[in-house]
Amino acid sequence: MTASWIGFAYLLASALFILGMKRLGSPRTAPAGNRMAAVGMLIAIVATLFHEEIVRFEGIVAGATVGALIGAIAAQRVKMTAMPQMVATFNGLGGGASALVAGAELIRLAEQGVAPSPFVSVPIVLGTLIGAVTFTGSFVAFAKLQELISGKPTVFPLQHLLNLVLGLGLLGLGGALILQPEELRLFWTILGLAGLLGVLLVIPIGGADMPVVISLLNSYSGLAACATGFVIQNHALIIGGSLVGASGIILTQIMCRAMNRSLANVLFGGFGATTTRTGAGPASATGPVKSGSAEDAAAILDAARSVIIVPGYGLAVAQAQHVVRELGDRLIQRGINVKYAIHPVAGRMPGHMNVLLAEADVPYELLIEMEEINPSFPHTDVALVIGANDVTNPSARDDPSSEIYGMPILEVDRARTVMVCKRSLNPGFAGVDNPLFTLPQTMMLFGDGKKMMEEVLRAINEI
Amino acid sequence: MEESFALIITIFVLAMFVGFEVITKVPPTLHTPLMSGSNAISGITIIGALISAAAENITLSSTLGIVAVALATVNVVGGFLVTDRMLKMFTSKRSKENR
User: The domain containing residue A379 runs over which residues?
Assistant: First the structure.
């Protein structure tokens, strides 16, 4: 009797997950959607506490208390600019938890002397593998985003061969564990080696490719939960896990498309690793560069009728979102038409720029996606690029020999005047020079994004 | 066993389809909250962790379960809270006061 009630509770939870995610489709309904999903989770957890196998509560209470405290504090404190790291960490913890649950079930069966059928042992192996790769991979992503380790790709000879051998070895060990499920040493070896594989898979991927990595790890964390659902034959786990797995796969595809690269190229290409140019200061570009002061920028902006602001990762690094919004507001007050152009891979995770600008209170109606805004550039007076580089590089459109050729860009070079606020002329992540900087209509504003925008704002106020 | 396997694989495939349908409609503006919210949902693995953690005797298995409960709880609590924090910014103040 109890069992079927728990089953109905899981059905209700799953329905709430689906409805909640559906409501994430619009900014207006999204907060309610997130809460629906949270209620679904609560229902699933409470129902589980009535499960007949739940006997001792001390461990649960201890684990959940510690986890809830850490989670709540982290969620309150994290800065919006650090959101990619945060999501990477949470992905990793979810994956790790799934791997541990798969392992706990294997060990429990071994303790009871029960030999699991392949219907159980295969998902145990999959859950352990995917979960462990997610766990360590996410922490490498975290370390890169937090700049604890270099954001540049770490590549070494025979890297792919090593990964291949490790991957095949893991499959072999997994097969062995399925045949001899009581051999727990196999499980620990798989857990350890899969963890190592997670590290090795993420270190060759550069910082600007993180949107793809985080999306993929997000998908893995769902699939790991799914595999664990197969292990303990739990419908709620399978449904919840699949939803997340699907979501991660879709985001991964969107991110790859926005860079015109295949997933394999992102994962194994070591993109940006070959850059030897680290040229300090404005010297690495060819052709004359016109640089301007904050006062010059203010005068041009004041005379414009339409301005498109193009934010990039540099805006997040400089924490310039608030002053940029102030500047945008001031221009709007002066009757200038202001829009924000968002490239899908600007920043370090899908939607990163949108969150930053939302934090600064820019109404989301002013944030325009790439396809939609590109036709507006030719009749726009000023394109103001702040901390973005590769996503505005015209050679991606015009120069078939360019490394980033084919990547869809924001066509800022078609605006009447282009202002680029940047710390130096260093090439962007892809290590490709940006001809935008030497166009006749381009004016470079060299300096920290936040300071420069503050100065521009002050200069405009004085006009 | 095989019968119940057929059932859960059916559930898995159908849930994937639902996931693809629902998520394709989420606009890029909301991709970060989508990711952190869905991430919190992947913390559903907490259910499995609870069952492992609460076995009658304290064993290696239940110890792993307790660690898994802690990890999954961070994921669930942190994930939903941070998503809520972000989403509030999207609908905050000025949009409502219709500038």
Answer: 294-462
